[in-house]
Amino acid sequence: MKFKMSIVCFLLFFAVFSCSRSPQDEKPEDNQTLAVKFVELVDQEDYENAILMMDSAMNEVFGKEEMKQSWEVVKNSFGEIDELMESRIESIDDYEVVYLIYSFTRATVEVKVVFDSDHKIAGFFANPLEFSNSLPLPSYIDTTSFSEIEVEIGEGDWVLPGTYTVPRNTEEFPVVILVHGSGPNDRDETMGPNKPFRDMAWGLASAGIGVLRYDKRTKVYPEKMAVLTNELTLDDETIEDVLSAVDFLVQKKGLDSSMIFIAGHSLGGMAIPRIGSYLPRVGGFIIMSGNSRKLEDISLEQFNYIFRLDSLTEEESLFIDTMRIKISNLEKISEDTTISPEDLPFHVSQAYWAYLKDYDQVAEAKEIQRPVLILQGERDYQVTMVDFMGWKSALETRESFTFKSYPYLNHLYISGEERSTPDEYMIPGYVSQEVIQDIIKWIEDNN
């Protein structure tokens, strides 16, 4: 399989905006049957007929090759389909969403097929509901030392479900808010059998540090986000919900803001300097595998890495060339220019890229007045040591910044050997104890 898991992990945020709008019409009665048929066609590799079931906007971003590659990723991650276990239908604005729960050989998977009012498919998603990690919990987790409370953050149209992990036998404790990377992540930042945010929450809470984590907006409201796609920026995707999480802790839990620490992973790490500009009084910030370079640069580097794990095909070479052209179009973005999403990387709108074009995360990091811990796995191929050194070279003279890299850890902070590959994410593991201990000590030193 040439199109590896890591690419999908990196790009899932962009994929959620594949729903298109159409005028409201009479709801079809057979969307459930159509959804099952569509999944069967894709699973049987009958992509030509599957494409005929999609609307025009979906066809532009999810053609035959993208469908083939994405479904290969699903099968590589979860195994083969065993049976359809249950289904349900939900109406959301002008769409009807069919939820199909399938048992695969290695996981229970929710397949979501979105229909417009013309019976055409406007969105297609597959996410694991259950994925077994057969390994015993690591020694740094003591499940008797904390409790977990289901909470909601935000208000109005963007309420998000979350989990507040609370140490027992203590009334006052610092709290870490966890900020997701790219993609419609759940609160655990689940990747196959691995749940790095859950590991962090349980490990930190075992040591007397509370943790607040929540499902990402792009996971909870994909259809609603799709409607607004041409207007969205990093603020909408990530930062507004961090502010809501802080407000939850201050207003509803009575925490002093100096007891709150913000830890961002990957895209969330890149966002930390901007988050810091909104939250100058929190206790501190943690950047975990945050890119110091432009997002488009590391994405192209990632494609090159993945495609060259084995021989580069002509199709992959063409894909990279096309991506370079689309990246070059980013230089043309201005207030006087309108560029179609189809001509920009990942079919993401000009508004999103314009925001990032004006965002210099390293320069903004220099303005942070609170302690900052920057962590990096040296085996990480998604965000690499080049990015870590970008932060370090610009900021290491500042006493408030601390840097630590780990020779054997990948993007999920799970240990491995040799060079990291996408398939490694499907191997059960836990966040390294060394990382948990380093975060605990840093918080203790700065609390």
How would you sum up this structure, described in words?
- Helix content is 38%, strand content 20%.
- By secondary structure, the chain is an alpha/beta fold.
- The longest helix is centred in the middle third of the chain and has 19 residues.
- The radius of gyration is 22 Å and the shape is globular.
- The N and C termini lie far apart (48 Å).
- The N terminus is likely disordered.
Portion in helices: 25-40%
The main sheet comes to:
8 strands, mixed
Structural class: alpha/beta
Helix and strand element order: HHHHHEEEEEEEHEHHHEHEHHHHEHEH
Euclidean distance between termini CA atoms: 48 Å
Instruction: Report the count of strand segments.
Output: 12
Ranges where pLDDT stays below 50 over 5 or more residues in a row are 1-28
TL;DR of this structure?
The protein is built from 16 helices and 12 strands. The protein has 447 residues and is α/β, with parallel strands linked by helices. The longest helix has 19 residues, at 234-252.
SSE blueprint:
Blueprint: H1 5-15, H2 31-43, H3 47-52, H4 56-61, H5 64-78, E1 81-92, E2 95-104, E3 107-115, E4 121-131, E5 146-153, E6 160-167, E7 175-179, H6 196-206, E8 210-214, H7 217-220, H8 222-227, H9 234-252, E9 260-265, H10 267-278, E10 284-288, H11 295-307, H12 314-329, H13 350-357, H14 361-365, E11 372-377, H15 385-395, E12 401-406, H16 433-445
Parallel strand pairs: 7-8, 7-9, 9-10, 10-11, 11-12
Antiparallel strand pairs: 1-2, 2-3, 3-4, 5-6, 6-8
Helix pairs in contact: 9-10, 11-12
